[in-house]
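DM between two lab members

TW: hey, do you still have the Winged helix DNA-binding domain-containing protein entry open?
JB: yeah, one sec
JB: this one, 370 aa:
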Amino acid sequence: MILNRRVLNRTTLERQLLLSRATMSPAQAVERLVAVQGQEVDAPYIGLWSRLAAFTQDDLAALLYGKQVVRGSLLRGTQHLTLADDYVWIRPLVQVILSRSRQAAFGRLMREVDLGEFAGLVREHLAGRTLTRPQLRDLLLKRWPEVDPVALGFSAQALVPVVHTPPNGIWGRGGATPFTLAEEWLGRALEYGAAMGAATAAVERLVVRYLAAFGPASVMDVQMWSGLTRLREVVETMPFLQKYQDIDGRVLYDLPDAPLAAADVPAPVRFLPWFDNLIVAFADRSRMMTAEQRKAVCVGAVIYPTFLVDGTVGGMWDLKAGVLTVEPFHPLSDEVMEELAAEGARLMAFAGFEKGSIEWRPPRSSTTTW
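TW: and the structure you got?
JB:
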């Protein structure tokens, strides 16, 4: 069966809770999404607000303080918020990504450091307490004074499972990043697969969760989202998966009997935050945006905030000091502008700007009106 882009788009939006705001709890939504991007402190809040019928900033803060949701390095080696129940098995699974990224960035700077000794000392310094990155870095410098301080600080969170405890991750709260041993914060051990079978089972578990959250996808899509590589053999040996094709002939996998959304289902406008995983969940992102739009939205390691019009990326936005700046990629119809203005007003109210204003930027293209 061949799935066109419209069906793929609507199916992905349905599974991402973006066709209609869901009535599920914030914890259930985080579980559904597997992990919520947290590179920017406020981004997870806006991402959940866009997806849930009833959500407040305090809802997510309570989950973080209650240790039901934790913040740490996970998918693609970047900051994510995920359920504690998922962190304990996903964090060991992505260790290979974190180790590889650390080696690429800091391997040369730490070539004289024994990594086993380093990880042991990090654990020793963090045992029973929380330290900021600068505090931990300064302690490590006493043992390796000749090593680049930045390399020491970032290598610690790559090689040792740590979580960043609140108030880090609370709306509007920046500052120094705290490090706490994940196992101590959660009060339980992480789930390391000692045998190859256990490791394969964890990968299959991640694939299933990804498909439930994002819809039919290729092996390359799963790898792009997770940061893991060499998944083709694993995915191709999961016999229960449903197979489709896209219009370009790529093989797409999905969960058996998982529903596909109709191509003509209406898709409301939605504001997505910095780094939202929907934008980076696919190697082929044509179901969400054009190649030219991708160049504007995905710049190096930065993923700009976007808004959706009729289910696809319609432009970019920013919110500063109560002013919501909206920059469409094409001219917008009056109806779409009214819908965006109403959703934008709700976004500003959620962010604490009841009397905010909207600044409309000129469309990047003078053709095609939504």
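TW: got it. DSSP finds 16 helices and 16 strands in the chain. The first strand starts at residue 2 and ends at 3.
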